[in-house]
């Protein structure tokens, strides 16, 4: 009995880990098993046919049949009828969510559509998601301006008097950013460089087939605003005269290495949710609360650190558009500094250190084409920067970090070059944790084995250069260690796992926490804040539902 109990316990922990790191819910739609059996006894329509919202708008879908069944569902597709049987939907809902559908065969649902630069078609399916049968489809729904400039997001560059702006849409013509120190008075203009990617740049399914949208990601623009003054307020818009300009936003000029304290928001594993309760968003609906709470404090925030697992698109291209729209109130206001996680980068034989399929075939391309961090080159996803009295180092746990690797050499040089008289605080970020309370130890890419590899190769650098705080994600929980080195509390780096921003919880932790864990929570979504002075670094963890302070530690010089 004891042996069987242990087996069941281990199976439960393994299942919890699989759920926490599972594939996209859109994978539940078996695209290859779809069949067409159009039936005039099924009808579907949507209104309005033309949408005018900036970046997103609502539609109402009406449908009816003489043969209602609990396996019927409604899917949103782009860009045309062909996608109904060859692509995954951008979102879907069960038909019986509409009250009375099973009794009367009539239903209505609402969807919020994100502008993906092309038309939408609404499909009416029977026979569930494993062997779906297309019964009817709507007329096209269009955005009045499919080429709206969208998805603006700021980032620091290697120069302290610059700010990079990246965005999508705006059409395949010249795009620009205009800025100035007064609202609606833009005295300076910079032309963007434009790029994009195709399925040939990606690595595998679903990114290269049924997760891909025929219209692709569209043009991706990036421009740099120069000659900025620290803490000066700047107002800006982006786009062009042909397809229009974005709403005005503003930011504060970046602060170089100095004695100024910094206010940072940090989290990992955010993902995206949807306010229309579409089925595929259920795993990460908590990300909406986190986004809302961070938006509420954005005026008093200098920058954001997102520690990997960004959108969780995992090969489904429309989910990047969804994520970028969700983040607009944050990414257009402060530098949004990111690093790559397994769900952005990992794919077999693609150059990632781990050969899982967690990126859904994106192999880092979709992420890196959107998020232009101050890294040395494509697929060298590590970098550092100064901001006020903080030096931030961002590594990639998804690339080789062992002693002698290109990344390890960078980390060693960078940490050795820090001028602690200017930046007394050093913050280190990576996706997979170096210290983690987890039972996952079966494979070379499991939590405990990766942690051991990090401690063997990277921890000596953290200790040698007195890194104050190390932040990690990947495990969907919040954990904080004592100041630690070589598994012993004392003088060392304080480690925090902050993978609790939106993805479903990881519950594969031991019932008795390790002695070096000072706080742990696997049931609360939220975000963390960092505030520094010359002598103190205050780190706080807040719940995203009620903003309750859950954990607080102060590091002192």
Number of helices: 10
Query: Could you tell me the mean pLDDT?
Result: 94
What is the general shape? globular
Question: Biggest sheet, open or closed, and with what strands and sense?
Answer: 8 strands, mixed
Structural category:
alpha+beta
Strand segment count: 33
Rg from Cα: 24 Å
Q: Report the portion of residues in β strands.
A: 25-35%
Taking the alpha carbons of the first and last residues, their distance comes to 53 Å
Extract low-pLDDT stretches.
1-20
Helix content class = 10-25%
Describe the structure.
The protein is of the alpha+beta class and 557 residues long. Helices cover 16% and strands 31% of the residues. The strands form 7 sheets. Strands 23, 24, 25, 26, 27, 28, 29 and 30 form an 8-stranded mixed β-sheet that branches. The protein has a 6-stranded mixed β-sheet with strand order 22-21-20-31-32-33.
Protein topology:
Layout: H1 2-20, E1 35-36, E2 42-47, E3 50-51, E4 56-65, E5 73-77, H2 83-86, E6 91-94, H3 101-104, E7 106-114, E8 121-126, E9 133-137, E10 142-143, E11 150-155, E12 163-168, E13 176-180, E14 188-191, E15 193-195, E16 220-225, E17 233-240, E18 244-245, E19 249-252, E20 263-267, H4 286-296, E21 303-307, H5 318-331, E22 336-339, H6 342-345, H7 365-370, E23 383-387, E24 390-394, H8 406-416, E25 425-429, H9 447-457, H10 459-464, E26 469-472, E27 478-485, E28 488-489, E29 493-498, E30 517-521, E31 526-532, E32 536-543, E33 549-556
Helix pairs in contact: 4-5
């Amino acid at each position: 009995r004891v042996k069987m109990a242990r087996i069941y316990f281990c199976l439960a922990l393994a299942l919890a880990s699989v759920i926490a790191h599972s594939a996209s819910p859109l994978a539940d739609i078996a695209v290859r098993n779809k069949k067409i059996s159009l039936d005039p006894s099924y009808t579907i329509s949507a209104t309005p046919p033309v949408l005018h919202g900036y970046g997103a708008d609502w539609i109402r879908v009406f449908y009816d049949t003489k043969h209602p069944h609990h396996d019927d569902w409604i899917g949103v597709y782009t860009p045309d009828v062909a996608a109904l049987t060859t692509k995954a939907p951008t979102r879907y809902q069960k038909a019986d969510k509409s009250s009375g559908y099973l009794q009367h065969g009539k239903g209505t649902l609402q969807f919020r559509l994100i502008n993906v630069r092309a038309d939408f078609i609404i499909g009416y399916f029977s026979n569930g998601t494993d062997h779906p049968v297309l019964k009817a489809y709507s007329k096209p729904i269009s955005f009045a301006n499919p080429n709206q400039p969208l998805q603006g997001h700021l980032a620091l560059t290697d120069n302290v008097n610059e700010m990079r702006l990246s965005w999508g849409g705006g059409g395949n013509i010249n795009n620009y950013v205009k800025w100035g120190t007064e609202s609606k008075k833009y005295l300076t203009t910079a032309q963007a460089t434009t790029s994009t990617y195709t399925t040939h740049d990606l690595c595998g399914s679903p990114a290269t087939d049924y997760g891909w949208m025929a219209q692709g990601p569209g043009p991706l623009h990036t421009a740099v605003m120069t000659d900025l003054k620290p803490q000066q307020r700047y107002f800006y818009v982006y786009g062009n005269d042909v397809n229009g300009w974005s709403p005005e936003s503003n930011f504060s000029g970046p602060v170089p290495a100095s004695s100024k304290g910094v206010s940072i928001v940090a989290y990992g594993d955010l993902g995206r949710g949807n306010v229309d309760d579409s089925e595929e968003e259920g795993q990460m609906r908590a990300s909406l609360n986190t986004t809302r709470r961070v938006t509420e404090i954005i005026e008093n925030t200098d920058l954001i650190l997102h520690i990997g697992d960004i959108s969780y698109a995992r090969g489904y291209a429309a989910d990047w558009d969804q994520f970028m729209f969700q983040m607009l109130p944050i990414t257009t206001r402060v530098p949004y500094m990111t690093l790559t996680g397994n769900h952005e980068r990992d794919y077999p034989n693609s150059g990632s250190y781990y050969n899982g399929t967690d990126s859904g075939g994106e192999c880092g391309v979709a992420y890196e084409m959107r998020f232009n961090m101050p890294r040395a080159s494509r697929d060298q996803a590590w970098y550092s920067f100064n901001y006020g009295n903080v030096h931030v180092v961002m590594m990639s746990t998804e690339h080789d970090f062992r002693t002698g690797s290109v990344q390890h050499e960078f980390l060693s040089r960078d940490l050795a070059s820090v001028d602690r008289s200017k930046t007394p605080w050093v913050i280190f970020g990576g996706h997979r944790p170096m210290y983690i309370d987890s039972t996952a130890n079966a494979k070379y890419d499991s939590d405990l084995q990766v942690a051991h590899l990090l401690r063997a190769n990277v921890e000596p650098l953290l200790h040698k250069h007195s890194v104050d705080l190390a932040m990690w994600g990947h495990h969907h929980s919040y954990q904080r260690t004592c100041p630690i080195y070589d598994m012993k509390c004392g003088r060392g780096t304080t480690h925090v796992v902050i993978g609790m921003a939106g993805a479903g919880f990881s519950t594969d932790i031991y019932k008795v926490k390790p002695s070096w864990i000072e706080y742990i929570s696997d049931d609360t979504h939220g975000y963390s804040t960092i505030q520094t002075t010359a002598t103190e670094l205050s780190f706080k963890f807040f719940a995203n539902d009620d903003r309750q302070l859950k954990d607080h530690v102060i590091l002192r010089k």
